[in-house]
Amino acid sequence: MRHFDFSPLYRSTVGFDRLFNMLDTANADTPSYPPYNIERTGENTYRITMAVAGFSDADLSVEAKEHVLTIKGDKQDDEQNREVLYRGIASRAFERRFQIAEYVRVEGALLENGLLHIDLVRELPETMKPRKIEIGNGSPKQIETKAH
């Protein structure tokens, strides 16, 4: 993958640090474990689905802080009395971070059939929502002035 140098843009912009940091992070090599999907489930709702086979809800943690959603998995070692001849199901610890937009909040998380589902919803404040401006259909009103 190509590497882009954003340093010239740092010299000529103010207040875009977070954007450039996100671009640098997206440009970096990202781990592929565990696999995940991001889907849009409605106009303002999203779902992240992560394959976490072998992990229980006690082994997983989900935290949202300052526009970053962090999902961690740390499997408790229960193989002390077992001899594994072949390991095809990965159970190594992981940490996956997602940048979430402003006004997006985590609504809930559900572990079902080896898949962790995290539901997100975007809630724009009333001042940010589009509003319709009525257009008058008569002649413009004149302002009357009174002479003293």
UniProtKB/TrEMBL annotation:
<dbReference type="Pfam" id="PF00011">
    <property type="entry name" value="HSP20"/>
</dbReference>
<dbReference type="InterPro" id="IPR008978">
    <property type="entry name" value="HSP20-like_chaperone"/>
</dbReference>
<dbReference type="InterPro" id="IPR037913">
    <property type="entry name" value="ACD_IbpA/B"/>
</dbReference>
<keyword id="KW-0346">Stress response</keyword>
<dbReference type="InterPro" id="IPR002068">
    <property type="entry name" value="A-crystallin/Hsp20_dom"/>
</dbReference>
<comment type="similarity">
    <text>Belongs to the small heat shock protein (HSP20) family.</text>
</comment>
<feature type="domain" description="SHSP">
    <location>
        <begin position="27"/>
        <end position="138"/>
    </location>
</feature>
<protein>
    <submittedName>
        <fullName>Molecular chaperone IbpA</fullName>
    </submittedName>
</protein>
